[in-house]
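Narrative summary of target 7.
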Amino acid sequence: MAGEKSRKALLATLGVLGAIPVASGLTGILGGPERAPGGAATTPSVDSEYRFVNTFWTAAGFALWWSIRRPEKRAATTRLVLGTAAAGGLPRLLSARRAGAPHPVFQAATVLELAVLPGVLLWHAKVIRDGRRAESSNAELAAAPDRS
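Modeled conformation, tokenized:
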């Protein structure tokens, strides 16, 4: 069934997308700004803020993993995490304009956030909608009287 293949592919994609903030967030928390691609030592305030923000980034990855365990019931969590990450591409553009081009890893992240994640959000919406329709159809069939 094509719908089930798309659902499984989406869940695998979301699993991989969840690994990105978990891995990079933990690296940011434990390693600080020096461990970021192109990173360097900075002021104590920037170091503190960097590690703090990476706590939320890590949590976003865990939330995404949590949401894919029951994708239809936790679809709002998936949309919130992906939508927030996609919106994060806009401040990256602002930073690039004001401070200059970042390390290529962050340039790639900007493309992921602004181009790929909106597509994944649309795919997610379709899979969830199709799943709910199939669930509704199955419920209607189960409730229909047997005319055999």
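The radius of gyration is 20 Å.
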